[in-house]
Specification:
Elements lengths: L2 H30 L5 H30 L7 H33 L8 H26 L5 H39 L8 E4 L1 H4 L3 E8 L3 E5 L5 E5 H5 L3 E5 L2 E4 L1
Helix pairs in contact: 1-2, 2-3, 3-4
Length: 251
């Protein structure tokens, strides 16, 4: 091949890259400007990336035509057959952005009492999950085999689900223990009783009047006016002296 053809190939590759950058900027500015619907603004990033790669592919096709003109004979038919897949992938990406918007709007009221950072992370996780699933569908629609990616996503999903289940189970077991202990203590303690708990049971001296019995703990006010929350299980696993009037009861 002559040096002239190599120069043309190089110009085609560089030109495709430059054209892709220009297309990316144009698409991003048209769809991401203020006043556009929120789904279009959110889809500006993925679609601008698609425009960039379209320019790069165009440069590669020109370079291929210079290197091997016969390889482009079947290209028009293949392009016509591929165009519906490309449009379907774009529709999936835009639809996923719309679904993510509705999903986050529906979940936000349920998280109104959660701290701000927690709300942000949960909403980002929901949105990211929807977009990731849509991206896999879009890539699959383009005819790319995503079996390995699907297995990796499934492994991550099931691993996260198992971890969350364990965390909830272990945390729930602790809470259930305290709730069961409180049910037993309600038969022994009443608001207004005075109790004394051994120092080794809770890491410090606890004694005072019971002012409230909560589902998982007993609230005690000491002689100095300090308020302490004693775990219900700590009262059942140690010796506690309860004073009601003039009588003493060991629990």
């Amino acid at each position: 091949m002559t040096p002239t053809k190599w120069i043309i190939v190089g110009c085609a590759l560089v030109g495709g890259f430059v054209i892709g950058m220009v297309l990316s900027k144009i698409i991003n500015s048209l769809l991401g400007r203020d006043g556009r619907p929120q789904p279009l603004q959110q889809a500006a990033g993925p679609l601008s990336g698609l425009g960039f790669w379209a320019g790069v592919v165009g440069g590669l096709l020109v370079a291929l035509g210079v290197l091997s003109p016969s390889a482009l004979d079947q290209l028009p038919k293949d392009l016509i057959a591929f165009l519906p897949r490309l449009l379907s992938a774009a529709i999936i990406v835009i639809g996923a952005n719309v679904m993510a918007q509705f999903a986050t709007a529906a979940i936000a009221p349920a998280l109104s009492r959660a701290p701000g950072p927690v709300q942000t992370r949960v909403l980002q996780a929901v949105r990211g999950l929807i977009i990731a699933m849509a991206a896999l569908l879009a890539v699959r629609q383009l005819g790319i085999d995503t079996t390995v990616i699907n297995l990796g996503v499934a492994a991550i999903f099931f691993g996260a689900s198992a971890s969350l289940t364990l965390l909830i189970g272990l945390g729930g077991r602790t809470v259930a223990t305290e709730v069961a202990s409180t049910r037993a203590l309600r038969r022994l303690l009443s608001v207004g009783d005075t109790l004394t708990l051994e120092a080794s049971a809770a890491g410090g001296s606890i004694g005072g009047e019971v002012i409230a019995i909560h589902p998982t703990s007993v609230e005690v006010v000491t002689e100095s006016g300090d308020v302490q929350l004693v775990p219900s299980s700590a009262l059942l696993t140690s010796t506690v002296t309860v004073r009601r009037g003039e009588s003493d009861i060991d629990a």
